[in-house]
# Entry
Amino acid sequence: MTHDPNCLFCKIVAGQIPSKKVYEDEDILAFHDIHPWAPVHVLIIPKRHIASMSDVTEAEAVLLGKMTALGPRLMKELGVTNGFRHVINTGPDGGQEVLHLHLHVMGGPRPWLKG
Ligand code: 5GP
Ligand code: ZN
# Structure
């Protein structure tokens, strides 16, 4: 499935729900988390609907590589200078709440809300 009409992040990709975008290309969108755990907290998502890491295969290796490598670039652009965290939650026990694959990238001075 490329687009799930009931998916929150697919709606953000489609512009049906507003977001504070920080990066966009033909495959990837990045925007600020609405409830940040850290002073800087962005979500990097594939534009195509992939529900979670459980659905990822080698076919997504380049996409995941691009998403991962975008993290440091965005942290730098957003003024994070002292380190950051990449987090991906998967499934109920992994604490995943939105069923559209997303990479959390968080930085900025501690203390943070979580993690
Ligand atoms: P998860 O728990 O699935 O790994 O993370 C979902 C994240 O999406 C949470 O950190 C939550 O704050 C964020 N989130 C949920 N709804 C929205 C929304 O409508 N807009 C934005 N920008 N972030 C959202
Ligand atoms: Zn989706």
The chain has one domain: 8-107.
